Each structure stands twice: as structure tokens, then as C-alpha cells.
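Trying the structure run again after the queue cleared.
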Amino acid sequence: MSISYQPMLTTNAYGGFSVYSDGFVQGVFSDDPATRFELAGGVLNSTEVFPMFGGTLIYEYVPGATTSPAVEMGSLVGRSFTQPSTSTPFAFSVFNQAYGMIQSTSSPVPLANNGMSINYFRSGSNARIQVACDPAIASLEGGAVYPTTAISWDFYGQQLVLSAGVAWNSETISNATWSNGTITFTTGSASSMAGAGNWFYVSGVNPSGYNGVFKSASASGTSITTSVQLVNGVQTAIASTPGSFVSAGTLAAGGGAATGIRVLKLQIGNSLVVGYNYTTGQATWNRAGSCAEILI
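Done. C-alpha cells:
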């Protein structure tokens, strides 16, 4: 015996358009009826110099007592630029329920400025959060939930990357040259950065074409070479010369293995990834980015 049943189908209009999406969105946490109660909120610290968006590793601390009525409604938070120690809690910002963040036609990604509210999940919350990742991390696909290869957090590109887990200190950029699509940075003293695949941030160099977020092709002693730059969240070849070096800048501290993070799923390409421009202060969506779903 069988039951005859003709379902009512939901389809696009005949001859109309088709929409298909199977990717992740940076800064969004996967729905979970238990974990959603772990969503926390705080206020972006007045010391922050960059706007905040979802999918960013952040610090959190409770403000001290004041002699006048406190204006902070919750913890103070900000972007983390250094590797959290194994005993230090960390958090990831999210777009979920962030109704007060600002969008514009020139900067369609929701952004928060100093004093605005930020939502986030703390480490240990068991939240599953979608964050941007370097496409090279696709090598983890099909492997263990706890990757045998060290993973790190790129503090300026705001993405998960493959790394040997070696952190480096801030250094002065004493010289920079371009040749056949490769930039060679020279540091004032030997940098602790080593090898290829490290994302690093350079600022303050004149001309400005030598500033930005770059991926090392090699790093040894005082020399760091790169042929790839992150432009609005997209890895871009350095095709033209930035000009002749005029004055020194700074290599920001970075690197270090990410601890307490499980990689659950990968979506290489076809994901919405935030592309933040450190020069204009605007953020756009890269619709062909790569994301990883992580458990913290």
C-alpha cells in the first residue's frame, strides 16, 4: 500500500533569474539553540584606530572604576594584534544582532566605530564561527578536526593561515625595492620572521605603495621578499613598481600559532569575505573569498 502525494514545489519564476549559494559569510556564527545564549556584547575601546567588523580576533577587558558615572555598558573590546597566550581568553566578533553597525554605498560591510556596541563569542563558548582563511589552508580538507599542521591568525588580513607558529617582533623597515613583481624589504635588525607564507603588515614607508598587508615568499635575517599583497581582501600580484624608497617605516609584530581553535569545515571560494582597506578606512565584500568554520 502506498500514499499518493504530489508536493507543492517552490521554484524561481519561469524564464526568470536563478540564485545559487553554497558558501560561508565571514563574521557569522552557525545557528545553535544552546550556543546562541553565549553571545556577548561590549563597547569598542576609544583607543582603537581601525573600525571593527565581524570575524575579527578581539581582546576584552572590564573597565575600572571611575570618579564619575561610567559610560561603558559592558566590557571594552578591541582588535587583537598579538598572539593570545594559552592562558588568556580570546573572542571573535560577529555580525549577528549587530543592528547598530554602519553601512554605506562606498562601504557596504557593517562597521563599528569607537564607543559603538560589538557582539562576540568568547573562547570556550563552543560557538561555530565563519572566518576568512587563506586559500592555502585548503590542504587541511579531509584531515583531522585538530589540524596536524599549525594554524595561525593573520592579525592584519583578519584571516586564518597556515604557519609554523613562529611569532615575530616589530622592526624598522630601513629599505624597500621592487624588481620584476617582487618587493624586497630590509629591516633594521634581523627579524624573527622565517620562511614563506607569513602575512605581515608594513606601514609608514614613503612612497605609500610599499605599505599594506603582504605574504612572504622568503624571510631570513634582515631580508623579506614578497610578490603578493592583500587588496580589499583579495590576494593580488604586485605587478607595478611602487617607486623608489624615500623614508623608513615599520614592520608590525605578528605571527604565532592559533590555539584553542578547531577547523570544522572549509569553503574555498564562493564565500563572502570582508575586504578592509587600511588606507581609505572602507570595507567591501569579496564574493569569491575563502572561509573556514571554526569551533572556539
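The chain has no helices and 18 strands. Worth checking whether this holds up in the mutant runs.
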